[in-house]
Amino acid sequence: MDAIILQILNGLDKGSAYALIALGLTLIFGTLGVVNFAHGALFMLGAFCAVTLSRILSLSHVVIDESRKDFLGNPMKVEVPYLHEWFGPEVGATIIDWSVPLSILFAIPVMILIGVIMERGLIKHFYKRPHADQILVTFGLAIVLQEIIKYYYGANPIPTPAPEAFAGSFDFGVLIGFDANSIIYPYWRLVYFGFAMVLVAAVFSFLQFTTFGMVVRAGMADRETVGLLGINIDKRFTIMFGIAAAVAGLAGVMYTPINPPNYHMGMDFLVLSFVVVVVGGMGSLGGAVAAGFLLGVLESLASMGWVIDLVPGINQIIIYLVAIVILLTRPRGLMGRKGVMEE
Amino acid sequence: MSKFQLNRRSLIKSGVAVGAGLALPTIFTSSARAYLNEPKGDTVTLGFNVPQSGPYADEGADELRAFELAVEHLNGGGDGGMLNTFSSKVLDGTGILGKKVGFVSGDTQTKSDAARASAKSMIEKDGAIMISGGSSSGVAVAVQALCQEAGIIFMAGLTHANDTTGKDKKANGFRHFFNSYMSGAALAPILAKEYGADRKAYHLTADYNWGYTTEQAVRESTEALGWETVNSVLTPLTQTDFSSYIAPVLNSGADVLVLNHYGGNMVNSLTNAVQFGLRQAEANGKKFEIVVPLYSELMARGAGKNIAGILGSQNWDWKLENELGARYSGTNAFVKSFGEKYGFPPSQAAHTCYVQTMLYADAVTRAKSFDPCAVVEALEGFEFDGMGNGPTLYRADDHQCFKDVVVVRGKENPENEFDLVEIVEVTPVEQVTYAPDHPQFAGGDLGACNSGA
């Protein structure tokens, strides 16, 4: 039982990332009707916002330490971060240590700006083009973005740890009455799950309880009529693209301590996120979130030893298997709306 | 007016003349086709096939730096690097057999088909006489087979799977880098010494050829010393989050986790294992331990602080000569050349590529010919020293180099990003040498060398 609970926790965590990326994807699809294959790249760019801020905070000047030698036998060049000098070593180190949470503040404006530029600069020219064209151009854009990142940051993963306060793990089993050491769970993964929940709630609240959100929802239902009412729906949709980019970016920022980011991480999530969107139902925000968590949990459960022993290879195909079953039984996905992508 | 008269003498004369005339172009042709891409002018072209895109692009970049340095030294540039320490003294900085060394590079993308395509292009379009480089065993095996078919020498780069010089070995292919068996043989005694002989291991293994051979090697070596393997789980190569594979480990009865992962797989699985508290955990009354049989400096850099305290094995380390003395001469010469040119110490991938280029040039010079079959003969059974690994043998039976293996541990407090591992011990070559027909290498046949004629 404890093993199953542990895998459900893992699944919720994985599902958080799937859900956040799929939420942005379906938001863009629902508002602009664009199938955005560059969305994984936005997740990756978010992660590199964290890397960038970490590097900015660690900006240093070089001090020559004559007492130590480098690998060539020359006096050692020691890098001293400016923050250590300005605020003292302790405060400076703490600020650098908290670079990932601080990156949230950095990533929101950066990602919204990237999203708006992407939409205004490229994607708007493809609104009236077939979905195949949109897929090609956004996929191409994703490759360009990841190559740019690789050029500046290299291909190797870059460790971007969580603050020391959230390093390590805790005994979740004891909290719910199991034996000690039966369910050990990392602090940061719990933070990630909580963060995802807050972000999903914030996006839903924004769409549900604000006038802006109401207009966007109306536009998603009938763009033409909203336009005829004199509302500049295009402008609002552009802002929604920016918000979707920010959601993907924040998912990437907070993911960096879980796995060190590399230029390819967006592609790793992209295909799965599309499966999540299709399973949840094209254009359905609730469906995307529900399917994200569902597939995340199923993927984790399928990785259990006895499940693999029972059905070898199931861990590699479970998501696609479930997708096939759901699409056969519910062709519009779990919460798909009639008429979306059916013309 | 002369009258044509046919008699016995004129017939013989004409026959000789016509025969010589006909034979002449044949002699030229057979000379031209003595072997593929025979260098005609005053330069010879080497083909360096490294990952320039994809996940191992940084490792590929380091390989390329080493190749460029080797070419520079062969042509008499720089400080000569290992030419000064190499036990064979036939290379004198005037190129190879008096021909200036040039090179072309290709991108393997760490994909077998792309690597074959770029090697093929370098052989056919650029006239490369030798192909070297690479950061993956899948690529090495594929390119080695291509070079065998084409009649070109392949000096493998970083490839660690047993199969490269095991079941997939080829007469035209040579590997300087160590292999999975050697990692297992070198690590096991040190694991037993550091963690005890009564240990229960849980293997997570990348689901591809290198993963299988590495798991087999480590399993057999550790089980021979008393360890028990409680479970072994294959993980998809495309996996990024290993939490669902790591989470059950602590309750499996195991007290050691062996991560048979390389590259991004290893960085993520190790990071996840540390997140799940395995480094702080206790099992069976012992401290839980994590082992990574093979890791590179770049992987250590990617894993950051999580690499601290992790035991693994390496082909070479830039600190060898400083810490363990003159047996590893050549190390400091190479580190100095590389460090002064590029500003940081070389990786083990860079080292093996540099050495392979030098060994090829040396073999050609000793054979006095670029003919692949002559080069094969010169390399087979060649014993050398002064290339950073101590006394080394290029065994004729399988074209595998036999030398000491370095066992390393991730540093707890590294001084900089290039000083992430410390040398724990060097396992002597005798301890990692195996019979050519060892079961882990069964099934292959070198075959005959192919000169592409």
Automatic annotation (TrEMBL), chain A:
Subcellular location: Cell membrane
Transmembrane segments: 16-35, 42-64, 104-123, 191-216, 236-257, 269-298, 304-328
Domain of life: Bacteria
Keywords: Amino-acid transport, Cell membrane, Membrane, Transmembrane, Transmembrane helix, Transport
Membrane topology, as annotated: Multi-pass membrane protein
Keyword Cell membrane attached: yes
Keyword Magnesium: no
PANTHER family documented for this protein: ABC TRANSPORTER ATP-BINDING PROTEIN, BRANCHED-CHAIN AMINO ACID TRANSPORT SYSTEM PERMEASE PROTEIN LIVH
Family: Belongs to the binding-protein-dependent transport system permease family. LivHM subfamily.
Protein name in UniProt: Branched-chain amino acid ABC transporter permease
Naturally occurring in which organism (per UniProt): Hoeflea alexandrii
Organism taxonomic ancestry: Bacteria, Pseudomonadati, Pseudomonadota, Alphaproteobacteria, Hyphomicrobiales
From TrEMBL, chain B:
Domain of life assignment: Bacteria
Keywords from the UniProt entry: Amino-acid transport, Signal, Transport
Signal peptide: none
InterPro entries from the UniProt entry: BCAA_transport, Leu-bd, Peripla_BP_I, TAT_signal
Pfam families: Peripla_BP_6
Domain Leucine-binding protein: 43-411
Membership in a protein family: Belongs to the leucine-binding protein family.
Record-given protein name: ABC transporter substrate-binding protein
Species lineage: Bacteria, Pseudomonadati, Pseudomonadota, Alphaproteobacteria, Hyphomicrobiales
